[in-house]
Each structure stands twice: as C-alpha cells, then as structure tokens.
Specification:
This protein is mainly α. It is built from two helices and no strands. It has a domain of 32 residues. Keywords: Membrane, Transmembrane, Transmembrane helix.
Length: 87
C-alpha cells in the first residue's frame, strides 16, 4: 500500500461529522444581528447627510439668487441712491 492510500484511509476514519460543532451558535447570531443594526444605523446617517447637503445647496442657490436680484435692482436705480437704508 502506498502513502496516499494510508492517508486517505486515516482521513476517512477521522471524518466524523458533528453538525453542532460547525454551526455559528449564539455568538454568530449576536454578531450577525449587530452587523445588521450597524448597517441600518449607517443607512440612516447617510440619508440624513445627503438630505442636509441638498438643503444647503438649495439655500446657497436662494442666497445667490437674492444677491443677484439685489445687484440688478441696485444697478437699475439712481447711481447715488441706496436701495435699502443702512442703520
């Protein structure tokens, strides 16, 4: 008999399969749950950051529009008159 046959026969004898030793157990269940919760929290965080960024862009566009309208009305009036009184 050759060495490969001996190793193969030895592996067959040691191949007792116990399904309780290959399951993740309660540790795997808890770890999977924590990963799921972390992904959900990160998703909510991402959505809030995207929404905040969109609101900032809208406000910046509105400010730019108001400034351009103010410049247009100031240029259309008398050069010496101030469109709004300053305090």
């Amino acid at each position: 008999m050759n060495l490969l046959g001996v190793v193969g026969r030895f592996a067959e004898e040691q191949a007792e399969f116990d399904p309780n030793q290959v399951t993740p157990g309660w540790e795997g269940f808890v770890f999977t749950g924590l990963i799921a919760v972390a992904i959900i929290v990160l998703g909510f965080n991402l959505v809030s950051r995207l929404r905040r960024n969109a609101y900032r862009a809208e406000v910046q566009e509105e400010i730019a529009r108001e400034l351009s309208e103010g410049d247009a009305t100031g240029a259309a009036g008398d050069p010496g008159s101030d469109p709004e009184p300053r305090n």
